[in-house]
Amino acid sequence: MKRTIYIFLAALFLFVQPICAQSYHEQYRPQIHFSPKEHWMNDPNGMVYYNGVYHLFFQYYPGASVWGPMHWGHATSTDLMHWKQEPVALYPDSLGYIFSGSVVVDKKNTSGFGVNGKPPLVAIFTQHDTAGERAHTNTFQNQSIAYSNNAGKTWIKYKNNPVLKNPGISDFRDPKVMWYDEGSKWIMTLAVKDHIAFYSSPDLKSWTLESEFGKEIGAHGGVWECPDLISFDDNGKQVWALIVNINPGGPNGGSATQYFIGDFDGKTFTTSGNNIKWLDYGPDEYAGVTWSNTDNRKIFLGWMSNWSYAQVVPTQAWRSAATLPRNLSLVHVGSDIFISSKPVVELNNISFNLQSLQNFTFNKAFDLSQQMNNIQLPCKLDLNVQDAKSFSIVFSNDKNEAIVVGYDEAQKRYYINRAKSGETNFEKSFNLERTAPRISNAKNIYLTIIADVSSIELFADDGLSVMTEIYFPSKPFDTIQLQTEESIKVDNLSFTGLKGIWR
Ligand code: FRU
Predict the structure, then answer these.
(1) Cβ-Cβ contacts under 8 Å for 134 (sequence gap 6 or more)
(2) Which end of the chain, N or C, is less packed with Cβ atoms under 10 Å?
(3) pTM for this structure?
(4) Nearest C-alpha to atom 8 of ligand 1 is from which residue?
(5) What is the C-alpha separation between 333 and 331, in angstroms, rounded?
(6) Which of helix, strand or coil describes residue 182?
């Protein structure tokens, strides 16, 4: 009898386990962030909004859960929250791997790829030729294009690729293309080792160098990658921002995203500020750029990992996820201008179980798990406290594992500490406390925190100081506590449950 029960349980386990795995419920699997069903992913690529669908292509190796011959994976969404993984969009060929790049809607059919009066989608990407790299040429990264006449489902590579040949610089990649209406031309923003090169084109096929930017400005602790040039309407004035990812050399080590605020005249980008600005100070947002064809909305999404350890994090079936899509806007602080990032409003589509408490004071500790019902991750926390005093928010489980998010008033900075968050020893720097300066001068502190089962995103002061970190607890966190050595007056504390996107 006992034996029959064992056999039955074993059979049940074997049956149930693949179903769980298939439905994105393995240990550590992000529940509200996109991750590939299986295998390796890094940068988001070719993000474009077309016919009511958000396309997310991504650096993908379908052969293993570590980096390898790069393809463009593909996923689609109609609400930026729920994703459907589609067949691989672009495969490596004789010109090389398919590295990062962008997709545009060619509304005027400047490329001539369109059929039946419908605009084609055109992908512009780097081809990385490993044979050339091994032979120590310095011309192994070139820009190619491909087009789609069925809204991104399938792609045809252009027969005269590459369209922009390498002038002899080993790092020459990650084209982000946009239509520059004032000059009726395409502008390509390209990362070239330690600077950005701007090229222009009438048809996406022939490109002319317009200018270079950045050799002596900004952070230079690593190679510049994955840029993006975007413009904002700042109270009637057009203000430009140039996003430049860098690896290593981020503010907390490894990969990170810096940006410059300035002006672009169709040829040249200029900036007046000297301070280095980071879109996200945490270690786990990289290669972030924005969706194209979204009009005035600027929607940003990054790869939620860091080249320092991305290939050894303890997930096996898949490796890496994307950050939440974030809405970018400009904020003036004194005489300076910053970018603020906040989760997109579509987050409301997966929100439930909202509970709020107003106007209370706490000393030492305040346990949400005791004051509210059904506290579990994924969730969103909004906290508005009076006066900037030191406090922390601790997410923990009964295995004594915790991730701590806090504000340190003496240092005027935010921090996240994952030293005791579970598995950390796959890389020695993983357990270091990371910090972000407080940029805002506002009296009150206003935080939004998005906690998934294996990541945390902090949006402080309405998105002025942002941090993203991943973590790997042995059991999901199910307790949330506010802690302080002071007496803290809370104007508002809201907990919102977030429904998993894979159900
Ligand atoms: C950034 C990056 C890009 C490159 C791609 C290769 O993470 O190194 O510069 O195109 O990844 O996968």
Answers:
(1) none
(2) N
(3) 0.95
(4) 225
(5) 6
(6) helix
